[in-house]
Design brief:
single chain; 631 residues; alpha+beta; Potassium Channel Kv1.1, Chain A; 53% helix
Length: 631
């Protein structure tokens, strides 16, 4: 820490109660009263340095019979600063530091201690030392903290703004550009393996420093000064990520409620046993609202996890509606980066209907769609085959779709969750955003299980939220046995599974035909007289295998036609539906148990995707409809 020595005489002041006495050998001829303190001093050393004291003493020149008593209750820095002024006037040794220079500079200005009252007067001396203070990070920060004691005068003399500009410049500087640690500083020294750079002690061998080195230092500032510093850092060109990091650190130190809710950045930074008092609810609310205004506007700069924690805390503290709306818009802009557990915000409204705040998530989702309505990715629109077996890159819209499906599954068990709210939240996601509808099917199934009193019409309404064509084989198998689903939906699931099966078999047949033609063409070029007979016999075997597959496809088509006729009869008679899946699957099983012709070529077999539909053992459990699909 920088230090400057003023004066050379030994100490002549001593304290008696609340009175400062000067033991210079001469009787005191003037008394200076500062608040509850009094100073018994001499006129000449004071009036020779201060224009204000000279004027005040002159007022008593015609009243010799009275003791000269002056009152300086308004002096900046109070009795502590005036004691330093008195020592300077008497030439007593005094050390200027970053902790006392601000108050002393303001007191010197108040007392008009200019060069008109002696060369090297206190104003000049303190200004020179302030210039040295501004060159050092630690001293500048300490001086800024001391500005709060004399803030009006410090603002008038631009001391606070100069401290802030100095700190902002250093916070934005890249230490890697200066062959760290920087040389040339007056306070550079090495002791105990430590180096001093810019007032910061670091290991002598350390060559790099992270961008968050200044977060903790500035977190001790009061909110008004910290706010001004962050704004200055932003104007100076600091990265938005750096500003966001400092704000997060500051909030976690000064907002205990946020710290108790989250372990983000180690939660509350108040050390155990600290004397730091917990701020009132009003102060915390004001702090939160101010910090929200300071957050960078850029997307993905402030973590979504932190924004959601702020939103939850703003509800507890009953922050202003504009503050909550600001947070909801920020979260909506980067909703694809959020986690499901953070979206589960407890309902803290006056009329608590549901366990979680569904309306808040609805607004956040609406904001996301508003930000992304022009960024529809055509790559998300894939054909049916890709939906089942392919893997698609996760776009922001797809990530949000998965997030919403997971959220719906979490809130679906709430018996107070009304159907319109469930539908409204699920319907915001466009159809193309879900490569597979297994997630929304699982949420619908959970909702139906938790709300058994829904009418048939309401069940059909909620099932319209999913696309039966986009269910995986596992989900389709589960849905075909799910007694909670309407009859029409189960029929659709079975129909699309049949269509998918036919498409798959046709594709295999097409590949087999091409393989046969290519093998025959290449074989004709390589045939020799010795193996011509062998090649002809192999070709005949392959033709027999292809004919066998065609026959099996024809049988499957007949079986599907019979199945449709049975469905139509059941729909007309409204018979027992529970036996339908078993009957349908039993027929497939019976068909699969028939003797099969020999298949010399393994590639001609039916695709494995048909196995679950033809294996009846897994569908004979009457309680299978009570199980919920696990995605």
């Amino acid at each position: 820490m920088a230090c400057m020595r003023l004066g050379s005489k030994s100490e002549v002041f001593h304290l008696d109660g609340q009175t400062w006495l000067c033991s210079s050998g001469l009787p005191s001829d003037v008394i200076i009263e500062v608040c509850e303190w009094s100073f018994h001093l001499h006129k000449f050393p004071l009036l020779s340095r201060s224009g204000v004291i000279e004027d005040l003493i002159a007022e008593f020149s015609g009243e010799a019979e009275k003791k000269c008593v002056l009152q300086l209750h308004d002096i900046p820095g109070g009795a502590k600063a005036f004691l330093l002024v008195a020592k300077f006037c008497y030439g007593v040794k005094t050390d200027l530091t970053a902790s006392n220079v601000v108050g002393l500079r303001c007191a010197a200005e108040y007392l008009r201690m200019t060069e008109d009252y002696g060369e090297g007067n206190l104003i000049v001396q303190t200004e020179n030392f302030l210039n040295e203070v501004f060159g050092n990070w630690t001293d500048s920060l300490r001086a800024l903290e001391m500005c709060e004691e004399v803030l009006p005068q410090a603002e008038e003399l631009h001391i606070a703004s100069r401290c802030i500009n100095s700190l902002a410049m250093k916070a934005c500087a890249d230490p890697s550009l200066f062959s760290w640690p920087i040389s040339g500083q007056a306070d550079m020294q090495s002791s105990g393996g430590m180096m001093i750079w810019n007032g910061i002690r670091i290991p002598a061998k350390q060559q790099t420093v992270t961008e968050d080195w200044w977060y903790e230092d500035v977190s001790f500032l009061s909110l008004p000064l910290y706010k001004r510093l962050i704004m200055a850092v932003g104007i100076s060109g600091s990265k938005p990520e750096s500003i966001a990091g400092s704000l997060i650190y500051y909030v976690n130190r000064h907002l205990p409620l946020l710290g108790r809710q989250s372990s983000f950045l180690n939660g509350n930074h108040v050390a155990p046993g600290s004397n730091m008092s917990t701020p009132s609810e009003s102060d915390q609310r004001n702090l939160l609202e101010e910090i929200v205004q300071l957050l960078p506007e850029q997307k993905n700069v402030t973590p979504s996890k932190f924004l959601l924690r702020l939103l939850r805390t703003s509800m507890i503290l009953r922050a202003s509606p504009p503050c909550r709306e600001n947070l909801e818009k920020r979260i909506g802009a980067q909703l694809d980066q959020a986690a499901l557990e953070d979206l589960l915000i407890p309902n803290m409204g006056y009329s608590v209907e549901t366990l979680y705040d569904i309306d808040c998530v609805q607004r956040i989702l609406d904001n996301f769609m508003l930000f992304n309505h022009e960024t529809i990715d055509s790559n998300c629109i894939v054909d049916e085959g890709q939906l089942v077996g392919g893997t698609q890159s996760l776009t922001p819209m797809t990530m949000v779709a998965n997030l919403v499906d997971g959220y719906l599954a979490e809130v679906a068990p709430d018996v107070n969750l009304k159907l319109p709210k469930f539908q409204s939240l699920a319907a915001v996601i466009p159809d193309y955003a879900r490569p597979l509808d297994d997630g929304i099917y699982r949420a619908i199934d959970i909702y139906l299980k938790a709300h058994p009193w829904l009418t048939d019409s309401e069940r059909e309404q909620i099932c319209r939220l999913m696309n039966c064509q986009k269910l995986s084989l596992e989900a389709s198998t589960h849905a075909a046995q799910n007694e909670r689903l309407p009859l029409r939906v189960i029929v659709q699931v079975l129909f699309f599974e049949q269509l998918r099966l036919r498409t798959s078999i046709t594709g295999w047949l097409f590949v087999s035909d091409n393989l046969e033609n290519s093998q025959n063409a290449s074989g004709n070029l390589a045939l020799t007289r010795n193996d011509a007979h062998i090649q002809a016999r192999n070709g005949q075997d392959q033709i027999v295998a292809v004919e066998d597959i065609r026959y099996r496809i024809s049988e499957l088509e007949k079986e599907c036609l019979n199945m449709k006729q049975e469905i139509n009869k059941m729909l007309k008679t409204k018979g027992s539906w529970n036996i339908f899946p078993k009957r349908f699957l039993f027929k497939f099983k019976s068909k699969s148990d028939e003797p099969k012709a020999s298949k010399p070529c393994n590639s001609m077999d039916l695709p494995t995707s048909t196995a679950p539909l033809m294996n009846g053992e897994n569908h004979n459990n009457d309680n299978s409809g009570d199980e919920t699909l696990k995605v």
